[in-house]
Amino acid sequence: MNNAPVGILDSDIGGLSVVNEFRRLCPSEDILYFADTAHYPYGTKTTEEIFRCFKDSSDFLIQRGVKAILCACSTASAVALPTDNSNSQSGNSKLQGFQNEFRIPVIGMLNRELVDTTLSVSKKHKTIGLIATQLTVKSKAFEKLFQMEVPNVFSFHSQIATELVNAVTEGNFSQNKITPLLNDVFKTFPLSQLGALIIGCTHFYHLREQIRDYIFPIPLIEPSKVASLCLKQKLEEGQQTQVPTHIGKIQCFVSGDKTAFEKRVRVLEKNQGVGYVNTFHQC
Q: 95 in helix, strand or coil?
């Protein structure tokens, strides 16, 4: 057993959906959530800027004694963690350096299990849809992962969906706001040919029901669920889980304006009927 907390990081409010998913799987684990709002948004930054943000955020959590890190940001995962940390084929020297320095499990949104999940639901259609931030789409990290794991099986149709990110950041989840944005995002998608749609940005998890209804019956793939399960399994394999009777708490550390972020989180909690955070702290 290990009573140290798990660290989860993202640039803003989107990663709280990943916090909720991991808590559902591991309710006894304490969670330290780092919201790097001082550097939001990640999706329009350069690769080098994302590496630095990821490294600084991870260092912050490690200094507070976390036993594992879950990178809830798909953009940071695409740039800094293109595959999970058990896969040495990525060829990313910075990634390898991070892993050697951290010496704890570091899980991102892209991993072999994501490919397996997609394979299991895509059936006869092998075109995969992806909606994500500008940098994630331009990095082609999802395409590269699938090509490496299952060469020549899938093709991708990817779309930048910045306005959906902005809507979640603003806390506007109304149908009048979201439906026109979905119309715009999916207007070029070959929906009848999609085997699945991957949510490539954590902000979109807060819109999962609206997205699922819009694309029905196309399967919706949520990397947060896959990554959370991967982390749960790593903790169990390493005998690093918390005492089962412990009631996990969630602390949130904010690099930007804590008061403004807390207000947005409380609006999100009220809207979705979920309690995401116990306490907030200014970094």
A: helix
